[in-house]
From TrEMBL:
The lineage of its organism: Eukaryota, Metazoa, Chordata, Craniata, Vertebrata. The keyword Thylakoid does not apply. It comes from Notechis scutatus (mainland tiger snake). Residues 46-228 form the IRG-type G domain. Gene3D superfamilies: P-loop containing nucleotide triphosphate hydrolases. One of its GO terms (cellular component) is membrane. This is Interferon-inducible GTPase 5-like. PROSITE patterns: G_IRG. Keywords: GTP-binding, Hydrolase, Nucleotide-binding.
Amino acid sequence: MAKKGENDKIALTEKQIQDLKAAFTMGSLDQLTKHVQDAFSSLENISLNMAVVGELGEDRADFINTFRDLCEGDEGAALTGKTETHKTAVAYPHPKYPKVILWDLPDVGNPGFSAKCYMEKMEVASYDFFLIIASHHFRSFHAKLAHYLKKAGKGYYFVRSKVEADLESVRQSNPSSFNEMVTLQKIREDCLQDLQAEKVRSPKIFLISSILLSKYDFYLLEEALEQNLDLPKSHSFLLATPNISHRILEKKKDMMLEHLWLVAVVACGIRTEAIPDISVVCNVDLLVRTMRGYCISFGLEEESLRRTAEHVVQPVEQLKALVRCPLAHAVNKALVVELLIQAASRAPNLPKQLVPMASVGLSFAVVYSM
């Protein structure tokens, strides 16, 4: 949970304060807790289905693996370098968030390709959005897919992959005059011309490297998806997004601070237990599960740290030495109780509107500030 200074006040929105004030003063915490628990459960259980589609030989598998922080050969990884198509969609659940699923759809572009027949067979309504991937040029069948998806009211995004290979090719051909930004703009303009020639209006095009998501336009793709998905699904997408930039980590932090007040309300109202030596009652098991989830989302677990160490070519123990909080596996009931006792000793300040409220208000304050 987020650590706050000794004199910090709990930062809640006016709406949250009013809901809590009404619940505490009218003795209706159970009603508020049930309402908040429903919202909390919806965030915990929301599913997200991402369809990835393109020609045979495109690097869809690389993208699917990299997004899920997997390498070829890992359990659950998509097979790269395929030479044969598959006839049905293949599901690749996220290893940490199994309700977030990337679907590798059958290859497109065969002779006589019909976007309508293809999408009807794929049951287009089953997916939340589509990533149309091309590693070279966007062709007529890519455009046909987009036209069909637009009519069906589905979100779609054109993803031009393998840009790192194009950049390297141009660099080797013209080392003295090579300019990365100019080359990227040329690739973008070529994609735009290809799609506009097929009457795709204002296409959303994102240049990425499927093996280096931290570069190029992936952050723009992430922002577009986050803005266009409804709130619960946007929450799920951000959680599953790999921690490849400070920007994404800050977004996750902000999201979890918003999520924290829901946790605090539910933890103080459902299956509570008294904490010895302090005037706090709460659901410790829920707090354990929530804290582990936060650690996992930020990559504070053994496997994620190992992968990060490999990526930055540093010993994993050196990375662990920089971590200032427990790893996911170390979060247990004893640790949570210890943190609650520490939070209670700091006497967290309720917003002045909540000061007169009963002991359950203190429990909320301690849980929220631990």
